[in-house]
UniProtKB/TrEMBL annotation:
Keywords: Signal. The keyword Signal applies. One of its GO terms (molecular function) is ecdysis-triggering hormone activity. It holds the Pfam family Eclosion. This is Eclosion hormone.
Length: 88
């Protein structure tokens, strides 16, 4: 009588399925390694959070002029205070 799940075949199929799921999950959590792109992404994130009160253009221009040396952090006021406006 044949078994429904033959162990070697089940093991191979499980390993392939695990590898596919692992590659898909790691592909969705990749981050750019270019400091300029990281900086501009951070500026965009802050713009989404603070809206009209955040000068995203100035932030992005500074990312380009400093080659990504600055790293704005929306949770750290010291890193974004120069891009905040009182009135939109």
């Amino acid at each position: 009588m044949a078994r429904i799940l033959d162990f070697p075949i089940f093991l191979v199929v499980s390993a392939v399925a695990f590898a596919v799921l692992l590659s898909l999950s790691s592909a969705t959590h990749t981050y750019p390694s270019d400091p300029v792109l990281v900086c501009i992404n951070n500026c965009g994130q802050c713009k989404m959070i603070y809206g009209e009160y955040f000068n995203g253009r100035q932030c992005a221009e500074e990312c380009l002029s400093t080659a990504g040396f600055i790293q704005p952090d929306c949770d750290e006021a010291d890193s974004i205070v120069k891009y905040l406006r009182r009135k939109p």
